[in-house]
Write the structure tokens for this entry.
Amino acid sequence: MLINSDRRPHPLTAVTYLRKHIVALKNLILLRPWTDDDRDPFAAMNADTEVMRCFQKPLTKTESDQFLVRIRTIFDEQGWGLWAVEVDGAFAGLTGLASPSFSAHFTPCVEIGWRFRREYWGRGIAYAAASAAQTFAFEQLKLRELITFTTAANTRSRRLMERLGFSTSPEDDFLHPLLAPDSPIRPHVLYRKSIASWHAAPSPGGPPREAGIIQAT
């Protein structure tokens, strides 16, 4: 089990063994609980205007610290949530699971999400880390469905969602209720993946489950 009896999180390690037609990564990618040392690089990521281009706005240091407190509190309460992602010993970003804080036609639900520092973009790291979180959701939590969403113009995240095996339908498109009516990023697309589709194809184009995910020691 990846959650122990006192409900505190265990770290996950995603060791990436990609199929032969994909160049193998040489990075060790660790999904782990947060530490106080993560606050400054987390705040720097959240203040980066390019990283935050498809979010409401960049975060101040105070806002980022408050966000991190919420993440860690949820983790302490339920034993899972958003993990810190470490690549070769350095903080790279986050990925994991969350429950949206707003009401919509698809809530209540569990969302998979991610956010990474720019220097880790385009290296397959987000895919490897999100694959580990997805494995945890379906194999450990036994969720019937995962959802993910982003603003319609966020082609980078949409490609990752599709690579992870999520699919979208026009009737699921929605206007994000927490964004201003005139916000250009308010139109959102919703992606879904069921546990049935997970069992049929765990991660299209990616590592086999038995090779890709191991428990940290």
Q: What stands out?
A: Residues 110 and 203 are 18 Å apart (CA to CA). The helical segments are 39-47, 61-78, 125-140, 155-163, 195-200, 209-212. The radius of gyration is 17 Å. The chain is about 30% helix and 25% strand.
